[in-house]
Design a protein that fits this description.
With 263 residues, the chain is α/β, with parallel strands linked by helices. 56% of the residues lie in helices and 11% in strands. It has helices at residues 11-25, 28-43, 48-75, 96-102, 106-109, 124-137, 147-159, 163-172, 188-201, 225-236, 249-262, and strands spanning 114-118, 142-146, 175-181, 206-211, 240-245. Strands 2-3-4-1-5 form a five-stranded parallel beta sheet. Helix 9 links the parallel strand 3 (175-181) and strand 4. The termini are far apart.
Length: 263
């Protein structure tokens, strides 16, 4: 389908032609914003090139935003968490400079791991999701999953002869975020399947984990000492470790609210 072209269009006809062209070319941002941008261009006496650049940049910015939103949605985060909303003052164990350096995602480009270790309520899951979100916004493919859910999925895939395909799917994402590692004991089969995922990603794509157990306590989750040592090695070699401590931020916040209410 072509659009009839003629000189001397009325403003109404020109607007209709632009709208139709934007639909055909799939330029929804230009279609929605060109009347306002045209008015601004006229008021500020922009050149034709200046006006055209404003239109195209608006379309590019909006496409980048929509791509980020799709990547964040595909990651499967259970809730929205951002670094902007993280209260660094509430947990002095966490170095803000280190976290903001990680948010630049250079470690992901290098395929390095990240471990967030600390008790419940100390902010490790918040940081895991927030850094995963930053990675998605930077253009990386990200997947978030609970450790037990991942292991259950791997066991089911193995039973259905789909293990290779499942491991490959988890191997393709740039950053795999595994939350709540260490909350439950894994049998040998589950631990070995998880190890296969980690091995598939080793030194190629990044893994970030959040765990309530220090590495010395991982033998409760991975009961085979040799397998436990191998998994710790995969998750720490060349990577970053953030220890969020033992003082629950959530508990402290609840107590402070209760004290304020009692006054």
């Amino acid at each position: 389908m072509s659009i009839p072209r003629q000189r001397g269009l009325t403003e109404q006809a020109a607007t209709a032609a632009i709208d139709q062209a934007c639909r055909m070319l799939r330029l929804p941002t230009i279609r929605s914003q060109f009347p306002e941008l045209a008015e601004t261009a006229g008021r500020e006496q922009m050149s034709y090139l200046g006006f055209l650049s404003e239109l195209l940049l608006a379309e590019c910015d909006d496409r980048a935003r929509r791509r980020s939103e799709r990547r964040i949605k595909a990651a499967g985060f259970p809730r929205d968490k951002s670094l902007r909303n993280f209260d660094f003052d509430a947990n002095p164990n966490i170095d803000p400079a280190m976290v903001h350096t990680l948010a630049k995602c250079e470690w992901i480009k290098k395929g390095l791991p990240l471990c967030l270790i600390g008790d419940s309520g100390t902010g490790k899951s918040h940081l895991l999701i927030a850094l995963g979100t930053e990675a998605a916004m930077a253009g990386h493919r990200v997947k978030y999953v609970l450790a037990t859910k991942l292991v259950n999925e791997l066991v089911e895939a193995a039973d259905e002869k789909q293990l290779t395909k499942t491991i490959a799917r988890y191997g393709r994402v740039d950053l795999l975020c595994i939350d709540e590692l260490g909350y439950m004991e894994l049998d040998r089969r589950g631990a070995e399947l998880l190890f296969q995922v980690l091995t598939e990603r080793e030194e190629k794509n990044s893994v970030a984990i959040a765990s309530n157990e220090s590495f010395s306590g991982w033998t409760k989750t991975f009961t085979d000492p040799r397998l436990c040592a191998a998994i710790v090695d995969r998750l720490t070699f060349g990577g970053n470790i953030i220890e969020t401590g033992t003082d629950s931020y959530r508990l402290a916040t609840t107590r402070a609210q209760a004290e304020r209410a009692a006054i």
